Amino acid sequence: MLNAAQKQQYFGKDLEDLTVARNYYKWIIEIFKPYLGNIVAEISAGNGNFTYFLAKESIKRIFAFEPSGNMYPLLSDKFKKNESVTTMNTYLGEKHQEFLNVFDSVLYVNVLEHIEDDKKELTYAYKTIKKN
């Protein structure tokens, strides 16, 4: 049985266009770098464009959440040989109890504005971030 995330479809035409935006992703990484930590969650990772650059940083573990049933296989395939990246075909909200006080940072890159209940989403993120 498919969960709610897996039923979601996102066709990612904009993600295809952003595949070539390497300087854009490098710029975002430079801004985030002081705050990343060792265990990072990327929410709605899409096809892994940004995850690719995250994986080049000295992050020990990346959890890339992608709710779209048709985008997830692209993400999963891209990182199947990278042991530091765990891909998940779900929403953070569906799994946040499993990750309480786990992440050093939770990243939303071009995502939060698309989430209907952003306050609830950020509450989930807050609960998964390590204290202090």
Protein model, in words:
The protein is α/β, with parallel strands linked by helices. The protein has one domain (4-128): Rossmann fold (3-Layer(aba) Sandwich), CATH 3.40.50.150. 38% of the residues lie in helices and 13% in strands. The protein has seven helices and four strands; from the N terminus they run αααβαβαβαβα. A four-stranded parallel beta sheet has the order 3-2-1-4, with helices on both faces.
Query: In the CATH hierarchy, what is the architecture at level 2?
Result: 3-Layer(aba) Sandwich
- Shape, please? globular
Largest sheet: 4 strands, parallel
What is the CATH fold-level name?
Answer: Rossmann fold
Q: Mean pLDDT, nearest integer?
A: 88
Q: How many runs of DSSP E, i.e. beta strands?
A: 4
Q: What structural class results from the helix and strand content?
A: alpha/beta
Instruction: Give me the side-by-side strand order of the main sheet.
Output: 3-2-1-4
- Supply Rg: 14 Å
| Helix percentage | 25-40%
Q: What's the assembly state of these chains?
A: single chain
Low-confidence stretches: 12-16
CATH homologous superfamily assignment: Vaccinia Virus protein VP39
Query: How many helical stretches?
Result: 7
Domains, number: 1
The fraction of residues in strands falls at 5-15%
**Could you give the order of the helices and strands?**
HHHEHEHEHEH
First-last Cα distance? 39 Å
CATH class: Alpha Beta
